[in-house]
């Protein structure tokens, strides 16, 4: 009995969604004007979800280690293969946790959740691994109470295209996961500048944890104040990037207690970084994690090593900080904290001397080439003197005199003049 009705609805939804541009505004309506949001199928989800998701109360997080986890209203679309997010405009109003992962969405539309309903209970949004390429400024409305937003493993481009208020509307956001979230086709220094604008525009005053792992970040860029728009920040995760130092300000984040810099490209921390950390740790309990960085154990690392040995800053797993390279090779694999100053040697041929000698040899080569070319030119002039005289007769006198005056090849000048 209900089948024709459902079929008709399906046709309606399909019509609606083909007509709609990328700016979906609301959940499709039935013929008599009611929203299809209330019409569910046997998955518990509204019919717009095509029976591919699960909706209902269940434990979250769903882990054997947390048997006492609270039951929450979860909408779970995992590996559903959707190619757009239009069904999310029909998200059940009581949703507390939205898991929407493993789809191929591309650019997000404006008003992903529609713009007519308030999702007062929605606290967690996991949008990982959806091939999201772009998030427009007004993608998320009505998300006042979302505490955790997960955008890991996407291809988000945030360049000049729009100076976006990407996270605007997430007024209560405490945890932002952006692990491997950005496209690799844009140089990280550009998106970090954009990210700073985004933080500035988005008003994330309550953000406590920020994950930026695996983003190929090799420098924080021109603005050391990048994280200063996040005054409540407590944990900053920058592991698995390519940073070679810690080159951003800490003092503007009074609550910061942990910075993760594991598996970056740090050969040693600079003295600037060390003094930034020391000054900051005086006002708060501060932990930094530097495991698996390629420390180079030569004489230049000594100030870092002696700091490691003496500082009151907590260096997590500091027994695991080891030489990746060293002078000599016997230091490779040695624990930094066990090194003595007399074990650390300077490179035998310091780089600046090499540079100097190579530049002197470059000058010598250049002078030789110059002399050679000059000699050839003079020889040509000498052997072609008859032709030259015929062709440039009016200038001949002048040229010979000029060569004579300028004192080039002084033995040859008289010969030319003598012709
Ligand atoms: C969204 O995807 C569905 C299939 O999952 C498709 O039928 C529909 O046309 C798409 N809508 C838009 C606006 O691209
Ligand atoms: C969501 O669904 C996937 C696959 O159906 C399942 O593996 C996962 O545990 C579910 N997540 C939760 C929190 O229930
Ligand atoms: C990114 O740009 C900087 C400077 O503009 C350059 O030094 C660096 O090599 C670039 N990195 C990549 C991966 O293109
Ligand atoms: C750095 O960022 C702050 C705010 O985050 C901004 O006020 C300042 O103009 C920026 N400076 C540069 C050089 O971009
Ligand atoms: C740091 O931690 C210790 C104990 O872990 C505590 O007594 C002290 O008050 C803390 N200091 C600050 C500035 O939070």
Automatic annotation (TrEMBL):
Keywords assigned: Leucine-rich repeat, Membrane, Repeat, Signal, Transmembrane, Transmembrane helix
Ranges where the LRRCT domain occurs: 293-347
Bilayer-spanning residue ranges: 362-383
UniProt key word Lyase: no
InterPro entries linked: Cys-rich_flank_reg_C (IPR000483), Leu-rich_rpt (IPR001611), Leu-rich_rpt_typical-subtyp (IPR003591), LRR_dom_sf (IPR032675), Wnt_signaling_inhibitor (IPR052286)
Signal peptide region: 1-20
Highest rank taxon of the organism: Eukaryota
GO cellular component: membrane
PANTHER family from the UniProt entry: LP06937P
Protein name: Trophoblast glycoprotein
Source organism of this protein record: Hyalella azteca
């Amino acid at each position: 009995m209900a089948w024709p009705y459902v079929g008709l609805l399906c046709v309606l939804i399909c019509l609606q969604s083909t007509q709609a541009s990328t700016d979906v505004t609301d959940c499709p309506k039935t013929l008599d004007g009611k929203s299809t949001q209330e019409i569910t199928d046997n998955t518990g989800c509204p019919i717009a979800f095509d029976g591919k998701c699960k909706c209902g109360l269940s434990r979250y997080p769903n882990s054997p280690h947390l048997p006492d986890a609270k039951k929450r209203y979860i909408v779970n679309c995992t590996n559903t293969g959707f190619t757009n997010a239009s069904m999310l405009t029909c998200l059940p109003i009581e949703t507390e946790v939205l898991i929407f992962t493993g789809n191929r969405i591309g650019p997000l539309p404006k008003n992903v959740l529609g713009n007519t309903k308030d999702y007062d209970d929605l606290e967690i949004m996991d949008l990982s691994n959806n091939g999201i390429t772009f998030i427009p400024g007004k993608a998320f409305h009505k998300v006042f109470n979302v505490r955790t937003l997960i955008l890991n493993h996407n291809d988000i481009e945030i360049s000049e295209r729009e100076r976006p208020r990407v996270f605007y509307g997430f007024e209560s956001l405490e945890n932002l996961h952006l692990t491997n979230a950005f496209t690799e086709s844009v140089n990280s220094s550009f998106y970090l500048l954009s990210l700073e604008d985004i933080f500035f525009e988005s008003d994330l005053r309550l953000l406590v944890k920020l994950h930026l792992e695996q983003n190929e970040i090799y420098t924080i860029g021109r603005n050391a104040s990048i994280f200063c728009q996040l005054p409540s920040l407590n944990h900053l995760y920058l592991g698995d990037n390519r940073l070679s130092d810690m080159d951003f300000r800490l003092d503007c984040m009074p609550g910061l207690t942990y910075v993760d810099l594991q598996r970056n490209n740090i050969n040693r921390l600079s003295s600037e970084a060390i003094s930034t950390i020391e000054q900051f740790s005086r006002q708060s309990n501060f932990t930094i994690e530097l495991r698996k960085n390629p420390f180079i154990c030569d004489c230049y690392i000594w100030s870092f090593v002696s700091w490691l040995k003496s500082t009151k800053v907590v260096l997590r797993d500091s027994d695991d900080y080891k030489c990746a390279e060293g002078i000599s090779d016997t230091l490779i694999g040695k624990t930094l904290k066990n090194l003595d100053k007399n074990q650390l040697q300077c490179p035998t041929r310091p780089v600046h001397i090499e540079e100097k000698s190579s530049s002197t040899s470059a000058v010598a080569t250049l002078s030789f080439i110059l002399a050679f070319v000059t000699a050839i030119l003079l020889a040509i002039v000498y052997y072609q003197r008859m032709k030259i005289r015929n062709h440039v007769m009016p200038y001949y006198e002048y040229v010979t005199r000029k060569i004579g005056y300028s004192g080039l090849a002084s033995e040859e000048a008289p010969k030319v003049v003598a012709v």
